[in-house]
Design a protein that fits this description.
The protein is an alpha/beta fold and 440 residues long. It has two domains: 94 residues, Urease, subunit C, domain 1; 305 residues, Metal-dependent hydrolases (TIM Barrel), CATH 3.20.20. It is built from 13 helices and 18 strands. Strands 1, 2, 3, 4, 5, 16, 17 and 18 form an eight-stranded mixed sheet that branches.
Length: 440
């Protein structure tokens, strides 16, 4: 299944004076990229010498970085069922502004994406309203109840790119074993939310701060236990397995150990888990309430280390929009979630600017790595590939302003946060989906 961008007039475009970066091939050189028929016709250092640009639109990139469009494997887009929080149309504008050209949407909609008709609905609505490419993840279990498996083979054939119970763990070991065995038959990807529900009745990280605030805590073992069990089930079934978003250093070590044993495990971290720690909740700040919860500083730094050494493969937005009525409540009653489509990239670049990870490795975790994991033809610069591209200024400083974001909701604890590095333009299939110049 692909979002359809077939209408309209094609342009021949020359993106000149760019710093061309392809994380997959480790290509990083100044040069030009040519777009023809909505695809990358050529790119490199000297291609302008024999190129007739008379009938081409020429865009001067002014030395800024031109990379494959970002790929986000975890976003809650709320349509159908909660369009007052977000719609595909508003989420796609936010994604484009964040440099994201491909988004995998979670199945916790109303109704749940657990049938072929819902896969087809997402495909149709994306064609009609989205300016980026939207791919559905289908539910592992029917109605996300953790009891009865969905028809993984049929849903995969209909267009699902992965399987997840969104913000719920598949807690039943027998159901998870069956899910992994079934998925192995089709080489489908199971993406687990790593929280044991019986240990996760709290509202924030278990520890001194939770005690001082009088809030029920969620211990780190709630995450570790689920992943350790699933690793054993992986060994039993031979299936691929993906941890949707890590939050604890102990779980990073579990993943690191499983990889050392050659198991086909991958892991992601949401931007808020490497950009924030539990201290942001100190004044009962519900905009920082997430699942899994924000952890202590040692766990936050473990996320950075895991990204740096390769234990963590992918960065996701975990975009989870909520309206004011869902967030401006007593902490224990507020919904979990932070919007992230527009902030994932600048928050990730903080690690590069802090010399914690190299630029190519960092970009791979938001381009080629997620694309390869779910089989998308995206995430790399290559001749003939769809012209899904992101142009960004690596150095420019700016401040996140929630009121200027494109998401329909504003639930994020980043207002006024200084960052460095900003998306300037985004192309999807060779068409300009975002231009910062029109935002001024």
């Amino acid at each position: 299944m692909k979002t359809d961008f077939s209408s309209g007039k094609d342009e021949r475009i020359a993106l000149i004076n760019a710093r061309l970066i392809d994380p997959l091939s480790k290509f990083d050189e100044p040069g030009t990229l040519i777009i023809e028929n909505r695809r990358i016709a050529d790119f490199g250092a000297n291609i302008l010498e024999n190129l007739n640009t008379k009938d081409m639109k020429v865009i001067d990139c002014e030395g800024n970085c031109l990379i494959p469009g970002l790929v986000d494997l975890r976003a809650h887009l709320r349509e159908p069922g909660a369009e007052h929080k977000e719609k595909l149309s508003t989420a796609s504008k936010a994604a484009a502004a964040g440099g994201i050209t491909s988004v995998v949407c979670m199945p916790n909609t109303d109704p749940v994406i657990d049938q072929i008709a819902l896969i087809e609905f997402i495909a149709r609505r994306a064609r009609e309203t989205s300016i980026v490419k939207v791919y559905p993840a289908a539910a592992i279990t029917k109605n996300l109840e953790g009891k009865e498996l969905t028809e993984i083979g049929l849903l995969l054939e209909a267009g699902a790119v992965a399987f997840s119970d969104a913000d719920r763990a598949v807690a039943n070991s027998l159901v998870m074993r069956r899910a992994l065995s079934y998925a192995h038959t089709f080489d489908a990807l199971i993406m687990q939310h790593p929280e044991d529900p019986l240990l996760s009745n709290g509202v924030m990280n278990d520890g001194e701060l939770a005690t001082r605030l009088g809030l029920a805590g969620i211990p780190t073992v709630a995450e570790t236990i689920i992943v350790e069990r699933d690793v054993r089930l992986m060994e039993l079934t031979g299936s691929r397995y993906h941890v949707s978003h890590l939050s604890t250093g102990d779980t990073v070590q579990v993943v690191r150990s499983a990889k050392a044993r050659g198991l086909p495990i991958t892991a992601a971290v949401a931007a808020h888990h490497f950009a924030l720690n539990e201290n942001v909740i100190a004044d009962y700040r519900t905009f920082a309430k997430v699942s899994p919860p924000l952890r202590g500083e040692n766990d936050r730094m473990a996320m950075v280390s895991g990204l740096s050494d390769g234990a963590i493969d992918i960065i996701v937005s975990d975009h989870a929009p909520h309206d004011q009525d869902s967030k401006r409540l007593p902490f224990s009653q507020a919904e979990n979630g932070i919007i992230g489509l527009e902030t994932m990239f600048p928050l990730a670049l903080e690690m590069y600017h802090n010399q914690q990870i190299g630029l190519l490795d960092l970009l791979a975790k938001m381009t080629s790595n997620p694309a390869k994991l779910v089989g998308l033809d995206a995430g790399e610069l290559k001749k003939g590939a769809a012209a899904d591209l992101t142009l960004f200024d690596l150095e420019v400083p700016w401040q996140i302003e929630l009121d200027r974001l494109h998401s329909k909701s504003r639930n994020a604890p980043y207002d006024g946060r200084p960052v460095q590095g900003r998306v300037l333009k985004t192309w999807v299939n060779g068409r300009l989906a975002f231009d910062i110049e029109t935002e001024k």
